[in-house]
Amino acid sequence: MRRKGILIVISGFSGAGKGTLVKRLIERYDGYALSVSATTRQPRPGEEDGREYFFLQKEQFERKIAENGLIEYACYCDNYYGTPRDYVERQLAEGKNVILEIEIQGALKVKKQYDDALLLFVMPPSAAELRRRLVGRGTETQEVIEKRMRRAAKEAEGIESYEYIVVNDDLETCVEQLHGIIAAARNTPGRNREFIENIRTELEGEKS
Ligand code: ADP
Ligand code: 5GP
User: Fold this and answer.
1) How far is CA 178 from CA 30, 45, 60, 175, in A?
2) Could you tell me if the CB of 14 is within 6 A of ligand 2?
């Protein structure tokens, strides 16, 4: 019996290394699909439409909301971000573990709709290292970095809503740990209800 994949929500402060981690996870292990979000923010140098994000105008994004085309959306630092519904549903049905790399408001909305979703929070080893990574990435102005650091302090209040934290200190160690947590979560009874029910029915049939 092919099992449905699980929905994995990965959140964490901007600059903690979520994008880097997820990219490495998908390179190293099979069976994952990464959902590409829609956003109204400007592409960063090197980002491509349809690869990192679907870059939309505000009006286009609002149309998607109206058509119920998004599983969730949120406003983050003055821009809209949202998860297209079709791709996620299709990949889950094909047995893939689908990763959503989204912020906390979106994560909580996903958990309400998909109670089996696995919520993971990526932490930097320290706040100073977080700032170093944000500065080192070189993609944001000083003003935006300050905004994201303030936002991180706010987001830190919500960490207990997640099932696991993973600390992104050494990248490869963290990728292995992430994969291990996902593999274990896939085997909880709650995420295998259909399989368990099938076995129960078979066992009933075996009774003589
Ligand atoms: P996020 O997606 O969480 O905003 P990124 O993946 O863009 O973060 O990472 C932010 C910066 O930190 C990037 O320049 C990236 O190369 C760097 N980085 C990511 N993981 C590590 C790590 N384990 N050690 C050192 N630097 C890292
Ligand atoms: P960035 O601008 O750095 O790419 O992303 C900013 C924040 O938006 C990150 O915390 C990222 O996880 C979050 N984000 C990206 N896509 C989505 C989405 O589809 N929905 C929500 N709620 N957050 C998202």
Assistant:
1) 14, 28, 35, 5
2) yes
Which atom of ligand 1 is the closest one to the Cα of 12?
3
Range 7-35+95-207: architecture per CATH: 3-Layer(aba) Sandwich (3.40)
Strand residues in the chain grouped as ranges (E): 7-12, 32-34, 37-39, 53-55, 70-76, 79-84, 97-101, 118-123, 164-167
Alpha-carbon distance of 8 to 185, in angstroms, equals: 10
Model-level pTM?
Answer: 0.91
Phi, psi of 205 (to 5 degrees): -65, -25
For the chain, domain boundaries: 7-35+95-207
pLDDT for the residue 132: 96
List Cα–Cα distances, 149 to 19, 136, 162, in angstroms.
17, 14, 20
The pLDDT of residue 1: 59
Please give the average per-residue pLDDT across 107-113, as a whole number: 95
Pull the structure tokens for residue 85. Answer: 């519904």
Using a 6 Å cutoff on CB, does residue 83 contact ligand 2? yes
| Pocket test residue of 14, 20, 26, 77 for ligand 1, highest count of atoms within 8 A of CB | 20
Q: Is the pLDDT of residue 146 over 90?
A: yes
